[in-house]
Amino acid sequence: MCARVGGACSWVYIEDWDTFYAEAEKLYLDHPAHTRYSLKYRHTDGKVLLKVTNDRVCLQYQTDQQQDLKRIEKLNNIFITR
Amino acid sequence: MVLHDADGFLTQLTRMLERSREKGAVYVTMKRCAFAPAAPAAGVARLSPVDPADCRCLVRAVLGSTKATASTMVAAKDHRRFMKSYANIMKAGATA
């Protein structure tokens, strides 16, 4: 899992979407009852922040790209349909 | 926390996205709930294996600036319709 630590801040984001998606799917399939998926959208910044966590492992991804909306839909489907 | 039906929740979500345009953020959280609401809780330490068709997903939306909340439980059979509407709302809210 590639991660970038941003200076003094403790937030760690996964930079590559495919890695984030694969890890998020794996986390959910391993712990479906304990994993939750949060999305934070700020229109003023145009940013979307995704977090998938089971309270032990936390995966985060942020984006401001329009094309990532489709990918986010794919991720949504994991949680709703499985 | 107000529990809505799927359509009511989507209406609330649309309103929250409109209200967050100038300031604030909208948080949407999804988590699977593998229990029936009417099931008795007393003495049940572990849930027995649940049929995937019974699983529901709790979806919550919070408007950061006003702390307004909305939630809904999406049943497995409704998820396709809900996801279509949800995706449309997010696309409209994120692109306009």
From TrEMBL, chain A:
<keyword id="KW-0733">Signal recognition particle</keyword>
<keyword id="KW-0694">RNA-binding</keyword>
<dbReference type="InterPro" id="IPR039914">
    <property type="entry name" value="SRP9-like"/>
</dbReference>
<keyword id="KW-0687">Ribonucleoprotein</keyword>
<dbReference type="Pfam" id="PF05486">
    <property type="entry name" value="SRP9-21"/>
</dbReference>
<dbReference type="InterPro" id="IPR009018">
    <property type="entry name" value="Signal_recog_particle_SRP9/14"/>
</dbReference>
<dbReference type="InterPro" id="IPR008832">
    <property type="entry name" value="SRP9"/>
</dbReference>
<comment type="similarity">
    <text>Belongs to the SRP9 family.</text>
</comment>
<feature type="domain" description="SRP9">
    <location>
        <begin position="15"/>
        <end position="76"/>
    </location>
</feature>
<comment type="function">
    <text>Component of the signal recognition particle (SRP) complex, a ribonucleoprotein complex that mediates the cotranslational targeting of secretory and membrane proteins to the endoplasmic reticulum (ER). SRP9 together with SRP14 and the Alu portion of the SRP RNA, constitutes the elongation arrest domain of SRP. The complex of SRP9 and SRP14 is required for SRP RNA binding.</text>
</comment>
<dbReference type="GO" id="GO:0008312">
    <property type="term" value="F:7S RNA binding"/>
</dbReference>
<protein>
    <recommendedName>
        <fullName>Signal recognition particle 9 kDa protein</fullName>
    </recommendedName>
</protein>
<dbReference type="GO" id="GO:0006614">
    <property type="term" value="P:SRP-dependent cotranslational protein targeting to membrane"/>
</dbReference>
<dbReference type="GO" id="GO:0045900">
    <property type="term" value="P:negative regulation of translational elongation"/>
</dbReference>
<keyword id="KW-0963">Cytoplasm</keyword>
<dbReference type="GO" id="GO:0005786">
    <property type="term" value="C:signal recognition particle, endoplasmic reticulum targeting"/>
</dbReference>
<dbReference type="InterPro" id="IPR039432">
    <property type="entry name" value="SRP9_dom"/>
</dbReference>
<dbReference type="GO" id="GO:0005829">
    <property type="term" value="C:cytosol"/>
</dbReference>
TrEMBL record, chain B:
<dbReference type="GO" id="GO:0006614">
    <property type="term" value="P:SRP-dependent cotranslational protein targeting to membrane"/>
</dbReference>
<keyword id="KW-0694">RNA-binding</keyword>
<dbReference type="GO" id="GO:0008312">
    <property type="term" value="F:7S RNA binding"/>
</dbReference>
<dbReference type="GO" id="GO:0030942">
    <property type="term" value="F:endoplasmic reticulum signal peptide binding"/>
</dbReference>
<keyword id="KW-0733">Signal recognition particle</keyword>
<comment type="subunit">
    <text>Heterodimer with SRP9; binds RNA as heterodimer. Component of a signal recognition particle (SRP) complex that consists of a 7SL RNA molecule of 300 nucleotides and six protein subunits: SRP72, SRP68, SRP54, SRP19, SRP14 and SRP9.</text>
</comment>
<comment type="similarity">
    <text>Belongs to the SRP14 family.</text>
</comment>
<dbReference type="InterPro" id="IPR009018">
    <property type="entry name" value="Signal_recog_particle_SRP9/14"/>
</dbReference>
<keyword id="KW-0687">Ribonucleoprotein</keyword>
<comment type="function">
    <text>Component of the signal recognition particle (SRP) complex, a ribonucleoprotein complex that mediates the cotranslational targeting of secretory and membrane proteins to the endoplasmic reticulum (ER). SRP9 together with SRP14 and the Alu portion of the SRP RNA, constitutes the elongation arrest domain of SRP. The complex of SRP9 and SRP14 is required for SRP RNA binding.</text>
</comment>
<dbReference type="InterPro" id="IPR003210">
    <property type="entry name" value="Signal_recog_particle_SRP14"/>
</dbReference>
<dbReference type="GO" id="GO:0005786">
    <property type="term" value="C:signal recognition particle, endoplasmic reticulum targeting"/>
</dbReference>
<dbReference type="Pfam" id="PF02290">
    <property type="entry name" value="SRP14"/>
</dbReference>
<protein>
    <recommendedName>
        <fullName>Signal recognition particle 14 kDa protein</fullName>
    </recommendedName>
</protein>
<keyword id="KW-0963">Cytoplasm</keyword>
